[in-house]
Write a structure and sequence with these properties.
binds arginine, Fumarase C, Chain A, domain 2, 6 strands, 471 residues, single chain, Fumarase C, Chain B, domain 1, 60% helix, Ribonucleotide Reductase Protein R1, domain 1, mainly alpha, elongated, two-stranded antiparallel sheet
Length: 471
């Protein structure tokens, strides 16, 4: 029997309880973190005089061996192990006999699991950040190549005003940079160690939660032992960030689906990042982009599910909290699949700039230029809007584009429309005129690229920094 709690029971658990209760099928992946916590705890027990020097050495060696076995997939577990903590204690006792049973002093599975999950989240959030930085780099590379490539900018999915494709790609980059910022801000708040909280009340043994926290890469131990074991804000908050990333990916995915459609024809995906149809040999499908759209549902579901589990839970630990892990694992696993695929798809796609340029002035997307020209002539915008609307109506009735209206026709629509208005009716002119910070003109887009270029190495450093020393 490997149970951690058999003493007061007259018989073993029913099979149905065991099957329901066990988390070993999904929490074994926490083993490296649990073992790191165990090594820190063993050192503290030694300093407290509860383990001799040789006992500590034996303990640390056995914990390292367990880690090796786990890494090599050579640590078999069974349902009766219940959870990762039970399984690893069994492994320790198998190696050390009675000495293996000493490690549990001053510790509970409640503070252990809270600590393990925090470490897991902090570690894997960095892996997500690596994926985000790669995607940002891919988007920025394509943005640099298309920084002055005109394309119709849309609102309501209707042609609105010409923009550059680079500017549109950088709009997606801005969201992903905020996601990176969210991760680092979240990490600062999550850098608190629950170890020392025990079951809920702390410990009567002379432990050293400050030293344990430092050894495991945390900034500080929990300020309140009840909060230490009951708090799952960190998991919910991380799932908000992953849901936000998922939503951002879905918006980019949707645009890629549109851009690669026959109707747009702006983008063609590389063969390595597109799929075919089993019946229609001509098809090239944007599956990655569609999965990005589709997976947003599960990321939002993971967040929603955990929040509902947490709602109205009394303090401190309740077994409900065992339900916190699978949504976290699910979100992190799927983001780690999705991000490299999206980055590869974006980095390798071919952008048909000539086709986008043809589309840029269509749909009267330069109408605002006429209105702004009138405003610069002193006409109130309200009147300028009306006059420009009349030009658009004239074009629609007569099957013309704005630049095809003659001087005479312009003058007959309004005497304020002098022939020189035609000078602003070019896409290049419209783009060049947008000079204010953050706009789509060549100058501001170059500034934006420079800022993003400077941010990328900083995020690269953050995302690859070691979180848990020596893990
Ligand atoms: N498997 C449990 C969980 O995931 C570990 C903590 C168990 N604590 C307890 N008091 N039964 O939450």
């Amino acid at each position: 029997m490997s149970k951690l709690w058999g003493g007061r029971f007259s018989q073993g658990p029913a099979r149905a309880l065991e099957e329901l209760n066990a988390s070993i099928s999904f929490d074994l992946r926490l083993a490296p973190y649990d073992l790191a916590g165990s090594k820190a705890h063993a050192r503290v027990l030694h300093r407290a005089g509860l383990l001799t020097e040789p006992e500590l050495e034996q303990m640390l060696t056995a914990l390292d061996e367990l880690r090796e076995a786990v890494d090599k997939d050579a640590f078999p577990v069974s349902l009766s192990d219940e959870d990762v903590h039970t399984a690893l204690e069994r492994g320790l006792v198998e190696k050390l006999g009675a000495l293996g049973g000493k490690l549990r002093a001053g510790r509970s599975r409640n503070d252990q699991i809270a600590c393990d999950l925090r470490m897991y989240c902090r570690d894997h959030a960095r892996a997500v950040a690596v994926g985000l930085v790669d995607l940002v780099e891919a988007l920025t590379g394509q943005a640099r190549r298309t920084a002055d490539a005109p394309v119709p900018g849309m609102t309501h999915l209707q042609h609105a005003q010409p923009i550059t494709f680079g500017h549109q790609l950088l709009a997606h980059v801005q969201g992903f940079l905020r996601d990176l910022d969210r991760l680092s801000d979240w990490d600062r708040r999550t850098s608190v160690s629950p170890l020392g909280s025990g079951a809920l009340a702390g410990s009567s043994l002379p432990l050293d939660p400050v030293a344990v926290a430092a050894e495991l890469g945390f900034d500080a131990p929990a300020a309140n032992s009840i909060d230490g074991v009951a708090d799952r804000d960190f998991a919910a908050e991380l799932l908000f960030v992953t849901a936000m990333i998922g939503v951002h990916l879905s918006r980019l995915g949707e645009e890629v689906v549109l851009w690669t459609s026959q109707e747009f024809g702006w983008v063609e995906l590389d063969d390595a990042f597109a799929t075919g149809s089993s019946i229609m040999p001509q098809k090239k499908n944007p599956d990655i982009a569609e999965l990005a759209r589709g997976k947003a549902g599960r990321f939002i579901g993971d967040l929603t599910g955990l929040l509902v589990t947490l709602k109205a839970l009394p303090f401190a630990y309740n077994k409900d909290l065992q339900e916190d892990k699978e949504p976290v694992f699910d979100a992190l696993d799927h983001l780690k699949l999705l991000l490299p695929a999206m980055a590869g798809m974006i980095a390798t796609m071919t952008i048909h700039t000539e086709r986008m340029a043809e589309a840029a002035p269509l749909g009267f997307s330069l109408a605002t230029e006429i209105a702004d020209w009138l405003v610069r002539d002193g006409v109130p915008f309200r009147d300028a809007h009306e006059i420009t609307g009349a030009v658009v109506a004239f074009c629609q009735e007569n099957g013309r584009e704005l630049h095809e209206v003659t001087d005479g026709e312009l003058a007959s629509i309004s005497p304020l429309l002098r022939p020189s208005v035609r000078d602003v009716l070019t896409v290049d002119g419209a783009l060049a005129g947008r000079r204010t910070p953050g706009s789509t003109g060549p100058g501001p887009v170059a500034d934006q690229l420079a800022t993003v270029d400077a941010a990328i190495p900083q995020w690269r450093t953050w995302s690859t920094a070691e979180v848990i020393p020596g893990l």
